[in-house]
Design a protein that fits this description.
373 residues, 24 strands, mainly beta
Length: 373
């Protein structure tokens, strides 16, 4: 029986494959996923179902308990059958594959073969990243019914059914929401935020094509959200040559603890622009006209949260620090008043409770004896 080798394009998307059974061409084009999933990118715990009507099964196959071996095409010309793709799959020896895992396949009255179950991919890293494929066997596992090369699983439009898409572990940034929460990874429907705890975040607008650039996810380590203590500067940068899907995308930068980091306790929503310096650099150096990159009218500072938000039109390198001006001291809150007696007050009952607000942490070891905080 002839073997069928997957034909894919540069993006590793399988072409339509028409199998033959016993030398007769079938009417189908391979297994097609069913269900309401928009992108057919499967994560651990997702429901999976795919059907295929080959036109005619080999004599004696109809009505049998068939076995479906599921594999993952990890590369263009190599598949991995070492892990159970669905929960409850059973191990066995299969002609042309060797040791593999299979699930029951049902055959409807019209000859449609269906394989279904729950994706088994703990942490979304157990399975290789790639396109699902299915081999169909009789109950013995020794007789392949639709050739000896796994048929790729696609949706009705020909897009591949994928597993193993994930953001690498160990990065300094976290993604919100996580990828499994997004319904369409070809065209994200929600804001996607990458955050470095305590420093800042970058939020990208909907419309990202993550699947078309899924090989670039491993390069998210080049996404830089940093703070230089010596220079007292925040830096946000994306290597758009490495992550092309972020290159021309609008985003919002958020800087956490801005006034505290820059020793600018007097920053307010009204005066922050006077005391901050925002520098933009591209691959040619410092950009003189920043209006092509920053929507200055939409920049905001939240004094209560000490957070600066900068909308950017597309990505490059942004540096934010203090300029040469000195911000004013933080105004005294209405519920507090300064207490500066003309002479030291020692051991005298003041007749009231004085409340003192400090704008920095107090080292209690240096307090005068008798004073407690």
């Amino acid at each position: 029986m002839p073997a069928y080798f997957p034909v894919v394009d540069a993006a590793n998307t399988p072409a339509v494959i028409v199998p033959t059974t016993g030398g007769s061409p079938g009417s189908g084009s391979g297994f097609t996923v069913t269900g309401a999933d928009l992108d057919h990118v499967y994560f651990d715990g997702d429901s999976f179902a795919a059907g295929f009507n080959p036109g005619s099964l080999p004599p004696g196959a109809a009505g049998q308990n068939l076995k479906a071996v599921m594999v993952v095409y990890a590369t263009r010309d190599k598949y991995d059958a070492s892990q159970p793709v669905l929960t409850g799959m059973q191990p066995g020896q299969f002609t042309g594959v060797g040791q593999a895992w299979s699930a029951p396949a049902t055959v409807a009255a019209d000859g449609t073969v269906t394989v279904s179950g729950t994706i088994n991919n703990p942490d979304n890293t157990t399975l290789a990243a790639g396109t699902l494929g299915i081999l169909l066997y009789d109950n013995s596992g020794q007789r392949p019914l639709l050739g000896t090369q796994p048929l790729p699983v696609t949706d009705a439009a020909g897009l591949p059914a994928l597993v193993g898409v994930h953001i690498p572990a160990g990065l300094s940034v976290t993604a919100t929401p996580e990828l499994p929460a997004l319904k369409n990874l070809y065209n994200t429907e929600h804001l996607l935020t990458f955050t470095k705890a305590g420093t800042g975040s970058i939020t990208f607008r909907p419309g990202l094509d993550i699947i078309g650039h899924r090989d670039e996810l491993v390069r998210l380590e080049t996404l830089n959200i940093g703070y230089d203590r010596e220079l007292q500067e925040f830096t946000f940068s994306v290597d758009t040559a490495a992550m092309t899907f972020l290159a021309d995308t609008e985003a919002s930068l958020r800087l956490f603890n801005l006034g505290n980091r820059l020793n600018a306790a007097g920053l307010t929503g009204a005066n922050y622009a006077e005391y901050l310096k925002i520098t933009v650099k591209d691959n040619t150096g410092k950009v003189q006209n920043t209006t092509d990159f920053i929507n200055a009218a939409a920049v905001t500072y939240d004094a209560a949260g000490d957070t600066l938000t900068i909308p950017v039109k597309h990505f490059t390198t942004f540096t934010i620090g203090a300029n040469t001006a000195t911000p004013p001291a933080r105004p005294v809150d209405a519920e507090y008043r300064e207490f500066a007696p003309a002479a030291p007050v020692t051991g005298v009952a003041l007749g009231k409770v004085w409340r003192v607000k400090f704008n920095r942490e107090v080292n209690t070891a240096t307090l005068t004896p008798g004073i407690a905080i």
